[in-house]
Amino acid sequence: MPPRATLASALAAIVGPDGLVDRPDALSVYDCDGYTLERGAPELVVLPRTPEEVVAVVRCLARSRTAFVPRGAGTGLSGGTLPVDAPVMICTSRLRTIELLDVPNRRARVQAGVVNAAITRAAAPHGLLYAPDPSSQPACTIGGNIAENSGGPHTLKYGVTTNHVLGVELVLPSGEVVELGGPVDDRAGYDLTGLVVGSEGTFGIVTRAWVRLVRAPEAVRTLLAVFETVDAASEAVSGVIAAGVVPAALEMMDRLIIAAVEEAFRVGLPLDAGAVLLIELDGPAAGLDDEADRVAAVCRAHGARELRVARDDTERALLWKARKRAFGAVGRLARNYCTQDGVVPRTRVPDILRRIADVAERHRLRIGNVFHAGDGNIHPILLFDERDADEVARVLAAGREILEACVALGGSVTGEHGIGVEKIAQMPLLFSPDDLAAMQALRSVFDPERRANPHKILPDALVCVEARAPRRQVPL
Amino acid sequence: MTAGSHPRGHREYVPADVEGVAGAIRCAYERREAVLASGRGRHLDVGERVRRCDLLLRLERLDRVRAHEPADMTITVEAGCTLSALQQTLGAAGQWLPLDPPCPDETTVGGLIAADLSGPLRASQGTVRDHLLGLSVVGAGGVIVRGGGRVVKNVAGYDLPKMHVGALGTLGVVVEATFKVRPRFRAEQAVVLRARDLAEGSALALRLRDALEPTWLEVVHPAGLLLAGATGTLVIAGMGGAPAWVEQTADAAVRTAEAYDPIRHADGAGLRRDVADLVARPAAAIIRASVLPADVPGSLATAVDAALRVGFARDVTVHATAGVSRIAVAAAHDVPRLLDHLRASLPERSVVVLERSSPAVEVPAADPGAGGPAVMLMQRLKQSFDPARLFAPGRFGGET
Question: CB–CB of B241 and A287 under 8 A?
Fold first, then answer.
């Protein structure tokens, strides 16, 4: 590894002095993403302005075999951008150009740092949108979405990031640039694009992507169903699915979350309710009211005590604001919080919620639930105060138990947030040594030297990754 | 099995279960025998020619549905299960896997994945990659590897299932798969329109897409390919979903395209199956040409028309919203010339591949520069997952 100053000046020569962050106070901004239980600042951060600068930076690092971490907006929730034995962080947040909006073909070519919501903003005047809508969509970048294979409420009907990315330009850790996939469907050869999506920055850095745009739905119906208990709401979720309806979104918020969002946004949610379901149906106007009636009937049959239909776009926007900003609202209830991301088969949602309540009680923690009920993708939010070491330990233990329960119910430890550093220890619960060896082999196809975001996703026998302990970087 | 579509002189083995497949592949790897997996043999003519086959693994006995929980809307099946059998199980619960490849009675789940088969429904429902949740594969040395899972959303680890979609069995043998499924359409109709030629028909198709967003949208030329005796080009718009919408949209299609002799088909699903089967219609070869959808009425129609006039091409079908076309060639010796013609005439980003071919076709060597540096990664992937090159050798175009 070259001395830090040598590397810094080589990188500054590429990105300019204002594209390099090397002062400790400024670097501390980059010491974690949305997962705050572990922290560690990189030695240097580079902020290239163009895909070409990214290539030059990666080639510079390749010459000295320096490891790096890619980062978008830093909204990730599994510590995917936490540097572990990677001195340099490459931020793509300045690569903000939508290079091509191809309306007739319903595709766009965007740079990696383009913000998720910006694509839909650009496409909306043409009646099109970019479907995956993570809660962080006003801030998160498409590059980060590709790394994590991000989801969002509307992925119940529309699918996740991988279903909407047609191709990527990837800078391999060697500095080679490969164009995978592209705007034309049905390519020849292996689906490398499909492998890059969800690879959490361990295959290199994506600098550009071709994404699919879909027609904005002609009509939308948004319902709020109020239930006395979480159990009743969960049963209603199963009932809606069993009725053969695929809502655009089917979200649940429990009592603790209702209280938090009510305090923050005054949406008029009933504070004494056990849970509410936010159900959205979209598509052609013909037949949509009929479908909404069927959903309402199912909710009533499962004991919904109140049903509200958003009367207009303003009311709909308010309901969604409550849902998408629920995480932020929770910040009012506790100094810190940690969001888990387990998945269970849809029919096991009541089981996992009971388990979560049990875990909360045993560990003396407050846990709220706001999640994609239609997908079985839970998001328990564990509240804590990071100054209380005992409580932090209990949060970590509780999180682990919840994820283990998800696996035991036939599910997964992550539906859309990624493994990152957070859930490496749980990978062997899901995958055999042979499965993990295959993943390691795949990684080596793209990054044989393991210099792109090292020590993520896969349990690594070579380095003792001390789980859960805040990491310190070894100075260069 | 298409006669002669794979090398002769091989042994055949019909394993009873996943362990049987693993054992056979372990053995084959030890003996350095080349392995080709087959379901019902219907799609063995897809992809480049297999150079060597010592052991043909017939997966027809792996035909069990392992798990179907209707309320979870997922299904796990063995690779030898036919798509028809799978759809029958799902149909009992009012569900389906919304994929409609040709010949579902003879198409197994393994073949569906390996050949990445699709049909008209892809216009609104996506392709195999959009529905596949998890996979078990027997890889090099007979090792069973699982990727993905059984839940509808899952980002734990790399998306290994994607690796095998369309890989034609060159990275291992798929033995079990989990899909997410959907409720069946409550109604389905189709409207058939007649255009003068391919250019006019495909332009009409794009107008219908923007005006009506049909569920599927196909172009067939010449019309006689689907309807005996008909002339010109057929454009078929299908609507599946809520009855009110289907009715209203079929009405609108008839009104919008009044000038094109619209005929309404009440059995939309039946017509769709007929169109789907055309993907694997008998021919010396089927060439797949993919362009941007908006390039179909222009450069694709022009290039194909020229080939039809001189007789290199026999007929063509197009998934209009995807820009994916299949051009049938009648005479084996015309195949190389048609490939050259299409590659030279279509826009830069187009993809032209020989999708299916009979043994009479002399398969031209793959253009080594065609895939650019991505091919280097594909070669590394093949090398990493099949170091002895025993899975369907020759079929992966990038290997030399």
Answer: yes
pLDDT at residue A473 greater than cutoff 50: no
ipTM of the complex: 0.96
Q: Determine the pLDDT at residue B373.
A: 84
Residues 6+ apart with CB under 8 A from A129: A120, A123, A213, A214, A215, A216
Backbone angles phi, psi at A22, to 5 degrees: -140, -5
Please report the pLDDT score of residue A468 as a whole number.
Answer: 38
Pick among A184, A200, A245 to test the B interface (most B CBs inside 10 A): A184
A372 CB neighbours in chain B (<8 A) are 153
Check B163 against A419: CB less than 8 A apart. no
Q: Which of B117, B122, B136, B152 should be substituted to probe chain A, the one whose Cβ sees the most A Cβ atoms within 10 Å?
A: B152
Residue A271 C-alpha, separation from nearest chain B C-alpha, in angstroms = 30
Yes or no: say if B147 and A432 are a contact pair by the CB < 8 Å rule.
no
Mean confidence (pLDDT) of chain A: 93
Angstroms from A239 CA to nearest CA on chain B: 8
Distance CA A419, CA A424 (A): 6
| SS3 (DSSP) at B379 | helix
Tell me whether residues A415 and B165 touch, CB distance under 8 A. no
> How far is the alpha carbon of B293 from chain A, nearest alpha carbon, in Å?
6
* Alpha carbons A237 and A301: distance in angstroms, whole number: 12
Q: What digits encode the pLDDT tens for the residues A136-160?
A: 999 999 999 999 999 999 999 999 9
What pLDDT sits at residue B365?
65
Which residues of chain A neighbour B376 with C-beta distances below 8 Å? Answer: 178
How many A/B residue pairs have CB atoms within 8 Å?
A: 235
Residue in chain B lying closest to A168 (CA): B374
Cα(A88)–Cα(A7) distance, rounded to whole angstroms? Answer: 9
Are A232 and A140 contacting, i.e. CB atoms less than 8 angstroms apart?
Answer: no
When CB atoms are compared, the residue of B154, B292, B377 closest to A184 is B292
Residue spans of beta strands (DSSP E) within chain B: 11-13, 35-38, 55-58, 65-69, 74-78, 95-96, 132-138, 144-148, 173-180, 182-183, 187-195, 216-221, 233-241, 263-265, 285-290, 315-319, 324-329, 351-357
Confidence (pLDDT) at B237:
98
Write phi, then psi, for A78 (nearest 5 degrees). -135, 15
Give the model confidence (pLDDT) of B138-191 as tens digits.
Answer: 999 999 999 999 999 999 999 999 999 999 999 999 999 999 999 999 999 999
Nearest CB partner across the interface for B377, out of A197, A344, A446? A446
The enclosing H or E element of A160 equals none
Calculate mean pLDDT across residues A223-239. Answer: 94
Contact A28, A40 (CB under 8 A): no
